[in-house]
């Protein structure tokens, strides 16, 4: 590694360094929560897969970490992958090439572990494209007025509703199972990018409802819908924020996450959320761009949808990554790929697959049909970013027919995405 003089890379493998890490992290990501309060939280830092850059005084100048995900959903499969997180450089050490060295270390670590892809949520959208990450999944956020009309769904009225204060000990396992189960919905297709709380640290972080994180709001509330046999079919976690305008209720339901395993459950959940007393609106966190509520709303425009980038994917082992996922149409195409940071990915690759099958990926000397960078291949990897759209922007080159065939094959019927930022 070529770190600045006087600095060195060290493993962060002990919780004894937590306070130091949190104080450093507050430089990279300013927070209004006191360090003493943060120390009491379930911090999901993956000790043993976290690395810091120390100066000569032993102080942190930069760091990064990665969650090890055994079951990252891609089109038609779940695969091992890494999730890059806790990335930061102290303002006194910026513009010295440290981030580039950390990314290179992360790539080498992933490849040594047999992980063909790395994903992340980007704090700033302009950073990671230069390292070959492509924007692979979009989120949508909504502000839905209370009482918004929903289309009818058969079976919704028969579902049972439970409303209570969140209790991690009582509710955590059931909610985690519902959330994980949604990755496989609809059966036979599944939702690419639906990362679950599969590590103990992520689960503990997702379960906590510490007062320090509430920003003055009430304790977290839980809504569960069940069928007549008592089996859970969906849930929502939320807080209410009271408000008044000229003696008229103007409260806000701040929705943390919502999962429904079928249309009836989705309709029942939203019927309750949109009819809570003294509330004027429901504000959502990240939703997938095909979340049922967008179709259930009679007037989706009234929900003021706002889209943003959510998941970024970096392909590290091209032949393995392309062979692990499935394809929505038959394909036989030769790709000319550039990759400035992982030379083994660069070159010509023939990708052959049957509809909804895995691909055979081999190096070839044949003439290419498409030319693209590893960034664009990562953007298309979850099936939500169209290769044809990238071609329209000049980021993929090839003849129209080849672009059309590849765009269809790399797509997926279910939009990629997740319900949380991690």
Automatic annotation (TrEMBL):
This is Putative acetyltransferase. Gene3D superfamilies: 3.40.630.30, SCP2 sterol-binding domain. It comes from the Bacteria. Homohexamer; trimer of dimers. The keyword Transferase applies. The active site is at residues 128, 422. The keyword Transferase applies. Acetyl-CoA binds at residues 87-89, 95-100. It comes from Leucobacter luti. Belongs to the acetyltransferase Eis family. GO terms for biological process: aminoglycoside antibiotic catabolic process. Residues 7-162 form the N-acetyltransferase domain. GO terms for molecular function: aminoglycoside N-acetyltransferase activity. Pfam families: Acetyltransf_17, Acetyltransf_9, SCP2_2. Keywords: Acyltransferase, Transferase.
């Amino acid at each position: 590694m070529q770190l600045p003089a006087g600095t060195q890379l060290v493993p962060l493998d002990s919780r004894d360094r937590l306070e130091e890490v949190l104080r450093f992290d507050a430089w990279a990501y300013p927070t209004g929560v006191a360090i003493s309060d943060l120390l009491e939280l379930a911090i999901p830092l993956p000790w043993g897969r976290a690395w810091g850059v120390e100066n000569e005084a032993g102080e942190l100048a930069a760091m990064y970490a990665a969650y090890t995900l055994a079951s990252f959903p891609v089109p038609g499969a779940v695969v091992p992958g890494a999730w890059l997180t806790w990335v930061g450089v102290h303002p006194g050490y910026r513009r010295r090439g440290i981030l580039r060295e950390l990314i290179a270390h992360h790539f080498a670590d992933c490849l040594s572990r047999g992980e063909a892809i790395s994903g992340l949520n980007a704090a700033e959208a302009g950073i990671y494209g230069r390292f070959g990450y492509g924007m692979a999944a979009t989120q949508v956020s909504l502000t839905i007025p209370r009482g918004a009309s929903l289309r009818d769904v058969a079976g919704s009225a028969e579902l049972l509703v439970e409303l209570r204060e969140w209790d991690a000990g009582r509710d955590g396992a059931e909610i985690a199972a519902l959330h994980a189960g949604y990755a496989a919905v609809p059966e036979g297709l599944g939702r690419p990018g639906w990362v679950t709380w599969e590590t103990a640290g992520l689960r503990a972080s997702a379960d906590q409802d510490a007062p320090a994180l509430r920003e003055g709001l009430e304790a977290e509330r839980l809504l569960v819908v069940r069928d007549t046999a008592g089996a859970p079919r969906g849930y929502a976690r939320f807080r209410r924020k009271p408000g008044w305008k000229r003696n008229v209720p103007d409260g806000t339901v701040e929705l943390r996450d919502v999962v429904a395993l079928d249309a009836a459950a989705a309709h029942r959940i939203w019927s309750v959320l949109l009819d809570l007393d003294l509330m004027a609106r429901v504000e959502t966190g990240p939703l997938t761009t095909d979340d049922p509520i967008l179709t259930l709303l009679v007037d989706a425009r009234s929900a003021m949808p706002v889209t943003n980038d959510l998941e970024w994917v970096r392909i590290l082992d091209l032949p393995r990554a392309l062979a692990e996922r499935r394809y929505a149409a038959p394909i036989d195409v030769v790709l000319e790929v550039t990759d400035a940071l992982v030379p083994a990915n660069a070159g010509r690759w023939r990708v052959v697959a049957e509809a909804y099958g895995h691909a055979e990926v081999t190096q070839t000397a044949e003439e290419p049909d498409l030319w693209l960078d590893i960034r664009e291949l990562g953007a298309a990897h979850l099936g939500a970013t169209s290769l044809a759209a990238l071609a329209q922007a000049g980021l993929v080159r090839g003849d129209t027919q080849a672009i059309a065939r590849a765009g269809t094959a790399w797509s997926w019927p279910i939009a990629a995405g997740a319900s949380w930022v991690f």
